[in-house]
Amino acid sequence: MNKRNDLGTEPCPVARSISVVGDRWSLLLVRDAFDGVCRFSDFQRSLGVARNILAERLRRLVDAGILETRPGSNGGAHQEYVLTAQGQSLFPVVVALRQWGERHLFEQGEPHSELVEKSTGQPLHFMAPQAADGRPISPGDTEVRKLA
Amino acid sequence: MNKRNDLGTEPCPVARSISVVGDRWSLLLVRDAFDGVCRFSDFQRSLGVARNILAERLRRLVDAGILETRPGSNGGAHQEYVLTAQGQSLFPVVVALRQWGERHLFEQGEPHSELVEKSTGQPLHFMAPQAADGRPISPGDTEVRKLA
């Protein structure tokens, strides 16, 4: 069985999410959208991606309900792409990717961009999975309960 | 500038993480490894992926320090793949993907697998980014402080 094309119907929520945002360009576009990028030309400048690929990925994210279009804020002809509520709720995914990268993919002292709270300038708390009652929980203390 | 190939040197930790795990197979392999899959044949059965692609992706994850190999636990000739400490620390990424999928990619009442605490059987707490002092924080209250 080739499961490549039917991840979107799997009973595993991780697989379904991956079917929607589990590729490099989609994840980078979502990151840029959180960062306030909204114009086609600005996504293109940020990612250095071919126009046809960019157009296709943006359309996929719109179809998936992650981005929506709106008229350009300057009254121009060009539409803008902004995160929907469903897209905004990818924030934990982006923050988790960021915090993992900060920990493991930079040399000691190597500078990197930081995600901070606007009002305080402080970096965010390190995000870690917790049990139902809030205790920190490690992977070994969890299990996946599959469908019968 | 084609940034496709140099994500791994970007000052953005999100981009670096995506350069390492931002593709469908890598994410699914990491998910399976958290789920206790460790043999080549079991990864193959789980993902339905061609042997050559699977071998290449496993090797990339080993090279990236996310998986490591060990002798087969049954004393057989086949090695096993297990998460390193660095790989284990992708747990928040996998949980965030799961929780987003649970919220947005299933119909009301549609069954899905669940990640639960072994000792209690309870699903994990919903993981959300927090400010430095623990207050919940929304994307609009954050900003990325780029390198000068």
Task: Report a brief summary of the structure.
Two copies of one chain form a homodimer. The first copy, chain A, has six helices and four strands.
Tell me what you see in this structure.
2 copies of one chain form a homodimer. Chain A starts with 12 loop residues before the first helix and ends with a strand. Chain A has one domain: Arc Repressor Mutant, subunit A (Orthogonal Bundle), CATH 1.10.10.10. With 148 residues, chain A is α+β, with helices and mostly antiparallel strands. Chain A is built from 6 helices and 4 strands; from the N terminus they run H-H-H-H-E-E-H-H-E-E. In chain A, strands 1-2 form a two-stranded antiparallel ribbon. Strand 3 (114-117) of chain A pairs antiparallel with strand 4 (142-145) of chain B, so a sheet runs across the interface.
